[in-house]
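Final report, closing paragraph on structural work. Over the funding period we assembled a curated collection of sequence-structure pairs, and we close with a single example.
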Amino acid sequence: MRRARTRFCTCRRKDPVLADAYLEQNAPDRTLKLLDQFLTERSGVKAHYLQGRAYLRKNDLDRALQPFERVLREDPEFVNAYYQVGEIFRQKNELQKSRDYFANYRESRDSNRTARNSER
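Its predicted structure, as stored:
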């Protein structure tokens, strides 16, 4: 039994899927704890994105901004990160920055949609 639990704990640190499930259950503290464990061993765009969303759930806008900006540095085509940053700036009443990020979101979303449609 102990070996199975150890394997489960090790396995869940290898993939941020469980953190996503915690976030969907509105448990941002558990999400952040799990992501901290995951990110000590490796980096991952998805993990940083979830980290930003968890901080948003806690209404910690400044801390939420950092992981989203990292996502955009590592993967500029991660469309939803533009939306999240735009939303943060909207809530902080920095409307020009918000508009810029929402415009990037729409542009990236539309270009990704066009690329997917042309592949068919």
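The longest helix spans residues 95-119. The chain is about 80% helix and 0% strand. We thank the funder for supporting this effort.
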